[in-house]
Every structure is written in structure tokens, then in C-alpha cells.
Automatic annotation (TrEMBL):
<protein>
    <recommendedName>
        <fullName>Glucosamine-6-phosphate deaminase</fullName>
        <ecNumber>3.5.99.6</ecNumber>
    </recommendedName>
</protein>
<dbReference type="GO" id="GO:0004342">
    <property type="term" value="F:glucosamine-6-phosphate deaminase activity"/>
</dbReference>
<dbReference type="Pfam" id="PF01182">
    <property type="entry name" value="Glucosamine_iso"/>
</dbReference>
<feature type="active site" description="For ring-opening step">
    <location>
        <position position="136"/>
    </location>
</feature>
<dbReference type="InterPro" id="IPR004547">
    <property type="entry name" value="Glucosamine6P_isomerase"/>
</dbReference>
<dbReference type="InterPro" id="IPR006148">
    <property type="entry name" value="Glc/Gal-6P_isomerase"/>
</dbReference>
<feature type="domain" description="Glucosamine/galactosamine-6-phosphate isomerase">
    <location>
        <begin position="9"/>
        <end position="224"/>
    </location>
</feature>
<dbReference type="GO" id="GO:0005975">
    <property type="term" value="P:carbohydrate metabolic process"/>
</dbReference>
<dbReference type="GO" id="GO:0006046">
    <property type="term" value="P:N-acetylglucosamine catabolic process"/>
</dbReference>
<dbReference type="GO" id="GO:0019262">
    <property type="term" value="P:N-acetylneuraminate catabolic process"/>
</dbReference>
<dbReference type="GO" id="GO:0006043">
    <property type="term" value="P:glucosamine catabolic process"/>
</dbReference>
<dbReference type="GO" id="GO:0005737">
    <property type="term" value="C:cytoplasm"/>
</dbReference>
<keyword id="KW-0378">Hydrolase</keyword>
<dbReference type="GO" id="GO:0042802">
    <property type="term" value="F:identical protein binding"/>
</dbReference>
<dbReference type="InterPro" id="IPR018321">
    <property type="entry name" value="Glucosamine6P_isomerase_CS"/>
</dbReference>
<keyword id="KW-0119">Carbohydrate metabolism</keyword>
<dbReference type="InterPro" id="IPR037171">
    <property type="entry name" value="NagB/RpiA_transferase-like"/>
</dbReference>
């Protein structure tokens, strides 16, 4: 596990984008696992800049996203489909037919989870999985619990996650109560993992993930068992780590 400490969110984002760009440059037809949330927005902005400067070509890249709210249609501004198009897909030359997310409009949880898991596996191995960290230590939408879920599944979101994510919605009541998420096994099967963490409100979750026991109570802690993890965290997120 490599831990890179940066002075700011901007520096974190630049370094993360450099790592993703190197993967795309070395393997133009790579498969990227992508994340949503405020943590990776700066990284996507930096990737767009590299594309606009003519330094990156996404035409052969395939992407699979970690998660999606259950029940939100694609055109809902809070759907992760919308987010990915807004921050990345519509701004670079990626082939939209090679970008995949769970289908939030399929309300049959078992069917959708099985479909997405089979799809991700059929596409091959994720070369690099980008992750953010929830304030409660979640990765994707794998919430703290008593066991690690292996494959894609439907999650009942924790109150703390609904509380954390309500800033994007009109009220907490508007935040979906469930989401589809890749499982811990899906994430751990990626060749490389890149975790970006910013802000003081993540400091405890980051410390617990890196130094606490490996436990499903802190889903991010499982990353210690992965052979190729890079964590890029700003000073605020690292503030509880000496
Ligand atoms: N499902 C997403 C995660 O994929 C994300 O990494 C995390 C942190 O979000 P943020 O980066 O906005 O703090 O929580 C969200 O709920």
C-alpha cells in the first residue's frame, strides 16, 4: 500500500489523474473502474484537461462504475449515470457504448445485481479501480456490516450515509434508501486500486482503514489485503495519522 499525502484537494486530484492517465497511455484499451461523489470530481476535471490538451485518448477505454442509486432514472441529476456524463463522459472522446453502470431503474434487486456482476466479469479484469471513502469507511456503497459482500448487491443505505449525501438533494427524504453496488470481491479483483480521500470528515475513516483491524465494520480496511493499492489523501484527511 502506497500512501501519498498532498497539501490540497487540487494536488490530490492532479496526482490521481496522472496515475489514471499513465494506465490509459500504457494500455489504450484498458478497463477503468470509476467512482462518483465529491472526491473524484477534481480528478475527472484534470483528466478532461489532459484530453483537451491532446494528451489522452479515451476512444478505446471501457469503464464500469461502482454503484448507482436504486430508483433514480438516468435523467435525474443525482443519478450516478448523470454525474458520470456531466463530469467525464460528455467531455472526452469515450465511446458511450463502452461505459457501464448498474441500472437504477431496474427495481428487481436480485436480477439487477446478478446482471451487473455478470457483465463486469464478462468484460474482463478492471485495470484500475478508482475509489472514494465514505465518512463511515464505506467503499462504493459497501456499508459497515458484519460481513463483506462478494458480488454486486442491493444495499440498504445507512442513516449516516443518507445524512452525508443529503447535501446533494433537496432534503434527506429525497435521498434514495437503497443502491446497487459492486461488492468487496468485485472491487478486490481489480489489478490496481486508487483511493482518493479529502477533508477532515474522512480522517477517522482513513485512519481506521489503514491502521485499524481489517473488519467489515470498516469496509475500507479490506484494501490492506490488496497487492496494489495507492492512497492519495490531503493533509486534512491525514490529520489523525502521524
Ligand atoms: N457511493 C458513494 C461512494 O462511492 C463515495 O466514494 C463516497 C464518498 O463520497 P464523497 O466523495 O462525496 O465524500 O460516498 C458515496 O456515497
Amino acid at each position: 500500500m502506497r500512501i501519498i499525502k498532498t497539501k490540497s484537494y487540487e494536488e490530490m486530484s492532479k496526482k490521481a489523474a496522472n496515475i489514471i492517465a499513465s494506465v490509459v497511455t500504457l494500455k489504450p484499451d484498458c478497463m477503468l473502474g470509476l467512482a462518483t461523489g465529491s472526491s473524484p470530481i477534481g480528478t475527472y476535471d484534470e483528466l478532461v484537461k489532459k484530453y483537451e490538451a491532446g494528451d489522452l485518448d479515451f476512444s478505446e477505454v471501457t469503464t464500469v462504475n461502482l454503484d448507482e442509486y436504486k430508483g433514480l432514472p438516468k435523467e435525474n441529476e443525482q443519478s450516478y449515470y448523470y454525474f458520470m456524463h456531466e463530469y467525464l463522459f460528455d467531455k472526452v472522446n469515450i465511446n458511450p457504448e463502452k461505459t457501464y453502470l448498474p441500472d437504477g431503474t431496474n427495481l428487481n434487486s436480485e436480477e439487477e445485481a446478478a446482471r451487473y456482476e455478470a457483465l463486469v466479469q464478462s468484460l474482463g479484469t478492471v485495470d484500475l479501480q478508482l475509489l472514494g471513502l465514505g465518512r463511515n469507511g464505506h467503499i462504493g456503497f459497501n456499508e459497515p456490516g458484519d460481513h463483506f459482500e462478494d458480488g454486486t448487491h442491493c444495499v440498504d443505505l445507512k442513516e449516516s450515509t443518507i445524512e452525508a449525501n443529503k447535501r446533494f438533494f433537496e432534503s434527506a427524504d429525497d435521498v434514495p434508501k437503497q443502491a446497487y453496488s459492486m461488492g468487496i470481491g468485485t472491487i478486490m479483483r481489480s489489478k490496481k486500486i486508487l483511493l482518493v480521500v479529502s477533508g477532515e470528515e474522512k480522517a477517522q475513516a482513513l485512519k481506521d482503514s489503514i491502521y485499524g483491524p481489517v473488519t467489515p465494520e470498516v469496509p475500507g480496511s479490506i484494501l490492506r489485503f490488496h497487492p496494489d493499492v495507492t492512497i492519495i489523501a490531503d493533509e486534512a484527511a491525514m490529520s489523525l495519522i502521524k
